[in-house]
Write a structure and sequence with these properties.
By secondary structure, this protein is an alpha/beta fold. Helix content is 42%, strand content 18%. It has 2 domains: 203 residues, Rossmann fold (3-Layer(aba) Sandwich); 265 residues, Alpha-Beta Barrel (TIM Barrel). The strands form 4 sheets. An 8-stranded parallel barrel has the order 9-10-11-12-13-14-15-16, surrounded by 6 helices. The chain has a 4-stranded parallel beta sheet with strand order 3-6-7-8. Strands 1-2 form a two-stranded antiparallel sheet.
């Protein structure tokens, strides 16, 4: 034991007696069946035990250099609060969810960039919860080099956090094997149960999830900028590969949003914009006179001018329904569109259903198809939760042969094979359309919001009825500013 004393023995004994240490069969968050479950949340109802347990942290804290302490939400918040009030350590608190009112902060308390923070946690398995907290602190400009846990479950967490990209030294009050050995000596568990639990621990190493490695890469910028040509070679989806190749060949990262209500205007837009864009986005359900002849003519223009057709359908239903919406009905989208998009709320069945139809159609005509996941919305006051983008990332990773990338307002994936497309781009002083849409400039979208491709609607279609020269000058301005922003990032 790190603190080999009677106080620690008493704490372990009382943790067992109050059922904070449970033996049996338990299904963990990961889905794995475990013969042991540690639930230190129970100590909030045992104030004397909590105080004695918290005192075990103090000798280790004295070995570390720090200005502030921060407990991992939620179990360790009570421990950090006690340590702060008892010993005078200034504390900050990390919220799991950003406030939707007031200051909308994820960190509460008084701090300055460059302050050193030590993380307090109850136990460590993979190290994921400590890393999540460390990432939030580092994003705020705070320095995190140390964390203290009460129990090290000895499943690889301490080693995981030693990784050079993470570089957090974890100090523990007691190792799990020491805890089990003490309980066996005291006669609380048999030697057979002790061996069973320790064997299970040894054979169940815990890794940090891919999505946290992804967040780490995004924050540390370890995913260096690559050219469109280089990124095309990384794509598992042929459509994603084609899109990157188009962007390099046409020296354009521009998608025009054809938010028009009649076929003739959309065809005119496609023809005039075609030489300068890599993608044209449609909303077919706002077209008053849609027909399949229009779809075929639009397809011909896409082939002649070499751009991708993207239907902004935002699928969001059960698998069997979206499959019918994609393949049939009035619009028969799978016949003529290259790219679609979807919400992830209905779950993976939606993606599987769309993928099946896309593959079936591609077998017939030889054309690659793909899907974008909606990770953010550009409308003010939207109700997407803070972790929605990372859930979209997880789904994209599992379906990378179909998912091309994201409709986003911030970088979602550090994997350069995925493309990020940002809507609401407009040159000018307008910041909003007074109906919730929020505008950003080409430079802000690419350099600050992580966009690989900018989506422009009203900024371009408002000039459709102007002279050809005026339309051309306007669209060239968007094309040049968007592409120059990309070039500046690559240099």
């Amino acid at each position: 034991m790190a603190n080999d004393n009677q106080d620690m023995n008493s704490v372990i004994r009382r943790l067992y007696e109050c059922n904070a240490l449970k033996f049996g069969q338990f299904k963990l968050k990961s889905g794995i069946e475990s013969p042991v479950y540690i639930d230190l949340r129970i100590i909030i109802s045992q104030p004397d035990l909590m105080i004695d347990l918290c005192h075990q942290y103090v000798p280790l804290m004295k070995q570390c250099r720090f200005d502030l302490i921060c407990g991992v939400p939620y179990t360790a918040l009570t421990m950090a609060t006690y340590l702060s009030t008892k010993f005078g350590y200034p504390m900050i608190m990390r919220r799991k969810e950003m406030k939707q009112h007031g200051t909308k902060q994820t960190l509460e308390g008084v701090f300055q960039r460059g302050n050193r923070v030590i993380i307090i946690e109850d136990l460590i398995s993979s190290g994921s919860s400590i890393l999540e907290t460390a990432l939030a602190l580092r994003q705020a400009g705070l320095i995190v080099t140390d964390a203290i846990v009460f129990i090290d479950r000895e499943q690889g967490g301490i080693q995981n956090l030693k990784h050079p990209d993470i570089d957090i030294k974890v100090h523990c009050c007691i190792h799990f094997s020491e805890l089990i050995h003490f309980l066996q000596i005291e006669g609380h568990i048999t030697e057979e149960k002790s061996n069973k639990v320790l064997d299970w621990i040894t054979s169940n190493h815990c890794d940090i999830p891919d999505n946290l490695h992804n967040q780490l890469a995004l924050i540390t910028h370890s995913s260096s900028w690559k050219s469109y040509e280089d990124r095309s070679r990384l794509c598992k989806n042929p459509l994603g590969r084609r899109l990157f190749e188009l962007m390099a060949k046409k020296r354009s990262n521009l998608c025009v949003s054809a938010d028009l209500t009649d076929c003739q205007s959309i065809l005119k837009l496609a023809d005039q914009a075609g030489p300068h864009i890599v993608m044209l986005k449609t909303h077919v359900d706002i077209i008053d006179d849609f027909n399949m002849d229009f779809a075929r003519r639009l397809r011909d223009l896409a082939q002649n001018h070499n751009f991708i057709l993207f239907e902004d359908r935002k699928f969001a239903d059960i698998g069997s329904t979206v499959q019918k919406q994609y393949a049939g009905g009035l619009f028969r989208l799978s016949e003529w569109t290259d790219l679609i998009n979807a919400h992830i709320l209905p779950g993976p069945g939606l993606i599987e259903a769309l993928h099946q139809e896309a593959m079936a159609r591609s077998l017939k005509d030889g054309q690659a198809r793909g899907c974008l996941l909606i990770s953010h919305l550009s409308s003010q006051g939207n109700l997407m939760p803070a972790d929605y983008a990372q859930e979209a990332y997880k789904m994209a990773i599992k379906n990378s042969d179909f998912i091309v990338g994201f409709i986003s307002q911030a970088k979602v994936s550090a994997d350069p094979a995925f493309i990020h497309m940002t809507p609401g781009v407009k040159i000018g002083d307008d910041k909003s359309d007074k109906l919730g849409q929020q505008y950003t400039t080409p430079e802000d979208a690419v350099q600050n919001k992580g966009a690989d491709l900018i989506i422009v609607g009203r900024g371009i279609i408002s000039k459709l009825d102007s002279s050809f020269e005026e339309f051309e000058a306007n669209i060239l301005s968007y094309k040049q500013r968007g592409y120059d922003a990309y070039i500046n990032l690559c240099q």
